[in-house]
Specification:
It contains nine helices and ten strands. The protein has a six-stranded mixed β-sheet, sandwiched between helices. Strands 2-1-4-5 form a four-stranded antiparallel β-sheet, with helices on one face.
């Protein structure tokens, strides 16, 4: 951890259950401002649950979780004010099918942040250009490829100018030839200053994107390290086995 950054996410002794299933087990995690964190591990290890808890989509059963200096379980937390600062990218794009790409991008800035339409449109075109689909602005999601839809979803997220972006396996629903175009866009965001947490199985991307890699298994954080250390010499046998299996594909 560096000393010139401010922690914007703190997770202490967090436990999460789905019924009798203990999916997060005494999780401790700190994420600093502008840090790029990749969470990896086998399916069912709790990766997506962590980021859904950070965005308030899931509630924790015990422990303490704070985001942008707000304690999530505090009844005084104003979620309508906090949530727009925490962008989220899902596996399935979640674009509104009845709205054009431009309208998808301008809706929340206008309704949630009160941005005038002209400014919202300018902002939308700025970010659509950044993800290389400004020429698709007037089209509806169904007319776009999966890769284009996910890039539109990234632009929509950026239009809210969030402090944090959470990526939940953003390429898992894409055909192989579309994956790289989305990963390239995400790599282009590295210098943006936005704090980003990405759950992914794309290990070569993780190596390039992250400041730190966190490996999970069985609801626990098994190890975490800088990418050059984690991929060269993981400490745990479980992480070594995981990387060996990933490299087979």
């Amino acid at each position: 951890m560096s000393y010139d950054r401010v922690p914007v996410i703190r997770v202490n002794h967090v436990n999460k259950y789905f019924g009798d299933l203990h999916v997060l087990k005494n999780i401790h995690l700190t994420v600093e401002e502008s840090e790029k964190l990749v969470i990896c591990g086998p399916s069912g290890s709790g990766k997506s649950t962590i980021i859904r808890c950070l965005n308030g989509l899931e509630t924790i059963n015990s422990g303490e979780l704070s985001v942008l200096h707000k304690t999530i379980k505090d009844p005084e937390v104003d979620w309508p004010r906090l949530r727009p600062k925490i962008g989220m990218l899902f596996q399935q794009f979640n674009l509104f099918p009845h709205l054009s790409i431009l309208d998808n991008c301008t809706l929340a800035p206008r309704i949630v942040k009160g941005l005038p339409t002209k400014e919202a449109v300018e902002l939308a075109y700025h970010f659509l250009d950044k993800v290389h689909i400004a020429d698709q602005a007037e089209k509806y999601p169904i007319a776009l490829s999966g890769g284009q839809q996910q890039r539109a979803a990234i632009a929509r997220c950026l239009c809210m100018q969030p402090d944090i972006i959470l990526f939940d396996e953003p390429t898992s629903a894409l055909d192989p030839e579309m994956i790289q175009e989305v990963l390239d866009v995400m790599l282009g965001l590295v210098s943006s200053g936005i704090t980003m947490i990405c759950v992914t199985h794309e290990m070569e991307f993780a190596r390039k994107f992250s400041d730190r890699v966190l490996f999970m298994d069985g609801g626990k954080i098994i190890e975490q390290a800088k990418p050059e250390v984690f991929f060269r010499s993981p400490e745990s046998e479980r992480a070594k086995k995981f990387l060996e299996q990933i490299n087979l594909h």
